Each structure stands twice: as C-alpha cells, then as structure tokens.
Amino acid sequence: MRILNKLLFILPLICVITSCGDTELEAPEIIPSEPSVISFWEEQSHLVMMGWKGKVNAVKESSYIVPFERQSKDEEAVSSSEWKFDISGHLIYYNPTSIEPTIYARDVWQVMACYSYGYDKAGKMVKVIVNDFSGDPVIYTLTYGEHEVFVPLIFPLGIYDFFLVKGLESISDADGSVLYTYSGNKAIYTTESWSGVTSTTFEYDEGVMYPVRKIVTLKRGGVIANMEITSYLYNEDGSLASSDKIVKEGENEVERTVVRYMASTLLPVSKLTDAGGQLDWTYKYDDNNWWTEITYKEHFEEEAEAKELSIYTRKDAFGNWTEAVQQQNNMVDWSHPDSSVKVNRIISYY
Q1: DSSP sequence for 75-125
Q2: Which domain of life is it from (predicted)?
Q3: What are the φ and ψ backbone dihedral angles of 307, each rounded to 5 degrees?
Q4: What is the C-alpha separation between 182 and 145, in angstroms, rounded?
Q5: pTM of this structure
C-alpha cells in the first residue's frame, strides 16, 4: 500500500516533467533599435567643421603679394584673418581683418566686424559680441528651450553666414530686449535702419528639424521695397545640400542665386547667379578638402572667364597647411588682387 501511494505521487510528476520537456520555450524576438542619427550641426566641433586638425588654439593667416623674397619684414599683408578656439574646439574669436577692434579703422570701407563667442559648461553658445569697428559693440545673449529644432544664428559663425544651433529659443540685446524668437514653426527677427524695416522669417515644415525657407522683406513707409526668398535642402545628416535665393522688386524677379555644397561639409561646390545674365562659380578641392581651383564664368553678350588656383607648399606636424601660393583674380573674388599671393599661417596649439 505504501509503495502504491509512492507510485501515485511520482507518476504525475513524471508526466509534468515529460510534458515540459516536450515543449521548447521560444526565445523572445530581439528587435534591434535604430541608431540615433546625430545631426551634422552637433556631431563635431567648430574646429573640425572648419577643417582644422589637432587641438588648435589660435590661427593667424596673412597674404602677401609675391615674389616673397622682395618683401621687407615690415611689409604689410594685403589681407589678414584670425581665429581662436577653446580647448573643446568651439570658435571663440574671429577677426577677418586682424585689426584690433579698439582701433577705429578709417581705411576699412567694407562692412566688416570682429566676433567673440562665449559658451556655457554644456558647450552651448550663450553670448556673442559683434564689433563693427565703429566703437559701439553689440552684445547678444542667447537662451534655449526644450525643443529639438535647429535654429539659424542671426550673425555669422566665423566665415559662415548660415549656421544652425539646436534648441535656440531667443536672442536678446544688452538691455534685455528680445530681438529674435523661435516659436512653433517660425523664427523671426526684425531690424530698423536708414534703409527701412527689415523682417527676416525662417520657416519650418511639419516634423522637419531644419528651416526650409528664409523670407526677408524690406519695407519703406509700410510698402515692401524688395523681398528675398531662400529655399534650403539638406542631406540625410542635416548638412546643407543647397540654397536657392530669389530676389524680387515688386513682382519682378531681379536675381536668383543657387549654391550647392559638398556633402557633410560647409564647402560650396558651385554657385550660379542669374541677374540678366549668368555668373557661374565652380570649386574644386583636394583629398584634404583644401580648395585648389575656382573657375568663374560670365554669360552675358560677351562671355568672360577667370580662375583662381591654390598650391599648398608647407604643412605642420598635425597636417594643417601653413603656406600656400595662390593665383588670385578679382573677377573671381572682388576683394582679391590680380596677382600671385603667398599665404602664411601661424598656428598655435593647446
């Protein structure tokens, strides 16, 4: 009887164990998560975007008319520029003239300015000082929101007139007046000057993190004097693929400029302007993305063509070029001389 009870107890266990052994547990399906795409505008530092290698601290670039051997040590450069970066690679200073902003430059007839950029501990740009050499620098304060949208700055970042910053919500002047705001699907900026009231609006399409249009209107006496409409296209990583700007006076289109960019850079590869005739620039680069040739063509009744060339003759241990010989032409760039130019760079590192 005792043996029978044991058998009755063990038998169900054997059945359970057997039935469990017959059923294989299915492993849960593992769905790989999609890798988050980091935007071009936040993936790398300003230093890397601008093509510098190593931990660059400061750069001074000066151009001299050749033959270089005939120059005296005191000979002034025909052009100079300065860049400074912090240890994280943020641009903190840019001066396209190398003239100190404390000096009133009577001979600087172009509209130029010196820029200083300040950042918080997280690396966000929070203060910018723009000095146009008039003696009255303009101080901007930048504030950020919780949104993920990339908003254009209202001032250049170094040589770049178009630069996007993630989460920017407003820009104020020194007395706290809000000059520029992003809200919803628009970023708006308005200025007044002797020429009239200029309103700049960047527009966003639904679900798009980058502005797709810029509309600039100039009004005099409440009447629109002219209008600029720029359309932007982007690559998959968010870098700018092209811009298409149309300038109107009244209902008439007076100029159109299309610029195309090398993928994942801020470098132009072509620029085409139509203003009663076509003006065409084409850019070539080497494997380091250093420009080697710019071809300019005019397509009017009489066609014209000009070129600029650059050969890099020296670079430092980090791979940054420190000397170049360029054949410049003021048809290609009005600010350049018609001459061979030697360009020197003095680079310091952290």
Answers
A1: PPPSEEEEEEE-TTS-EEEEESS---TTS--TT--S---EEEEEE-TTS-E
A2: Bacteria
A3: -135, 150
A4: 9
A5: 0.84
